[in-house]
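Q: I have 772 residues here and want to know how they pack in 3D. Can you give me a structure?
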Amino acid sequence: MAQTNIALADADFSKFDYDATESGPDEVSGRGGGGGTHEVRNVLRALRRNRWLIVSIVAVAVVLAAISQLLATPMYKSVATVQVELTDEEGTNQAEAEARNAIRVQNEAKIYRSRAVAAKVVEDLDLINNRQFMGSNFVRDGELSEQEHAAAVTKLTRMISVVNAPQSDLLDIEVTSPYPDLAADIANQYPLSAQEMRVSRRQRMRRRMLTDLEQESTRLAAKLAAAEKKVAEFRAESGMLEGAGGSEDLAQINRVAVEAASAQALKSASSARSSGVSRAAGMTSTANADSPLLQQQRRRRAELETERTRLSSTFGAGHPQMVSLSNQISELDQSIRREEAAVQAAARQQAAAEAAQQRTLAESERDAAAARANELRGMLNEMTAKAYSNNANKAQLAQLEREAEVARSAYMSTVNSEEEVRSALGIIGVNSTLISGAVPQSEPFYPKPARTIAGALLAALVISLLIVFARELLDDKLRSPSQIFRMFGLKTFGMFPALDRSETTDMTLENNPVVNEPHSVFAEVARGLHTHILDLAKPNKTQTVFVTSPLPSDGKATVAISLCAAAAAAGQRAIVVDFDLRQPSIIQDIQRELGRPDLVDLLTEPGERIRLPAPQKPTDSRELTTYSPVVVSMREPVKNPAAVFTPDNMRNLFGRLNEDFDLVVINGPSALAVHDVRSLARFADNILLVMRWGQTTVPQIEATLDKLANRVDGAVFDGVDYADHARRGYQDEVQYYMQSTSEFAHSGGFAAEIRNQLAGFANGFKKIWARG
């Protein structure tokens, strides 16, 4: 026996007896905390079970990170900052303006990330011939192919990163290179190359647009000239001047009508004036007629009269001076009368002449007004007739004018666009401006050993924890009594250690660890199982135990033989009846070697009995009398099982067995492999479920319990790897016992722990792969 033949000279027989108290305080009695504490403990136990896997993953990650940092080429980063030109229109919706500006910044960032700008930078800096950029192994042989040029552009795009912060108009152009000067040159060249490319593209586009507009304006000018010519020809043919056919005609007719009425009124006025002048000529008065000589004579007479009045106070009337003055006044009065007559005659002649002149002018005005009125009436008639004619041609003229106006609008719009494009040829649009140039860095930004190793440590720790939790979640295999009790409410009666394959294959009634190695762990577990079975027995009655498992090869035959051997060693008459006839087992091999009546004989011959071997007398009076275990199975396959395993035969068989034995162990078939398990279970007092440690899964147990109608009394683990179980840290008797032995310390150490952890992870991955 490998790693299980451990001497237990002072061991307690109940050391490996598992009952409900072994499920832990949280699972059974609730002592030690609530559900939250239980979950925390489960997590801590899972971490403890996988601690070496976590340590190995973290160690490998840290070592790899350290090696990568040591072997990494130092990289330098240079950053150039550009500012994007935004729009700030007054009177517009602020939200719309901000949205447009955000799109403008995003578009500018996309332009800087484009391959077109990268190709322009490659061309401007002649990076094709730069060994720092192309690599020391680059050798240019002749002209550069398109693939090589594209590879250079791709390399540059991988070196550059454009970062734009939210709600900001600044763009950071980050260039990473092993050479700080090259990184700074590229970062500073990017805005210049982008601007130059943008300008050249705009100029080319504008020139193409200008050419198209010039051609279009020439075409529209010819079209406009033709339309205007049609309008002029139609006006000439129809005799329609500018404005004819509209309100201008009516206004002109009204003006002529007013002029004609005015001329007629003037004629009447002139006739009346002529009559009035004739009558007024005879009414002219000459009393007030005057002349300069008459005025002078009158002033002279007034002076002489004044002088005579002055002298009269001094001289008498006969004084010569007085006489002389009187004579002068008389002569002067005669002269005045003659001058007045002459003046009045002249005034009358002048008035008659003026009256004749006024009469002649009035008659002329009358004749002119009459002629004017006749002429205007003729013009009015002609204009009225022409207006009616223009009105008839108005619709066709309007159509021609509309066509001419449309042609004129199209032509003027094209001419304006042409002028705008021609003016824009000299304008360089600015979309972004370099505000902070890049400078060569003296300190590399990569590698950063401390930060990288710390990040690798943290990432490896997180990944290892995720792997551990994924492994635990995916691992539905049963390994501990606490799992069995917590999930199914079953007590675990024993955990049989794993045996070598040769020991399992060569096991007989005499070559059994329970008999040959009574102080081994295997024997202790078998005796503990027998103790639990005795606790289930009824007083003074043969006990029948049905042993089954979910699937074949779970070890139920070994458990059945070991239970029978432990019962026989404890002084009970015990027998194993093998009903697992579809699978070859060690019980069938033992049956063939014994040469006793087999199961068919016992079923078909009611009088046939198994002779119980004689009890073995103890050499020491302090020991009990023991029996040898008995095994009954099949020597050969049954041709007609239905005729042999009838209910009557089965009842007769178990009746005889109950008379001859104290304990009947039925080695039944696997519960999930055949359909007659429940039929056999009816003849048993108790049902024992055997599970393969680390192989039997939760769904298998659930299906088995459903098939057995939940009549299982206890569970047994077979094939337990005690060392692995102890390393998993379930905190049960197996762990504490193995930790107290020197064998566990030498069972493989850290390397074995890592192998087991990795194997468990591989199995979980295989399960995911199989399910996917």
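Q: Anything worth noting?
A: Residues 260 and 377 are 6 Å apart (CA to CA). Confidence is low (pLDDT under 50) at residues 1-34, 743-750.
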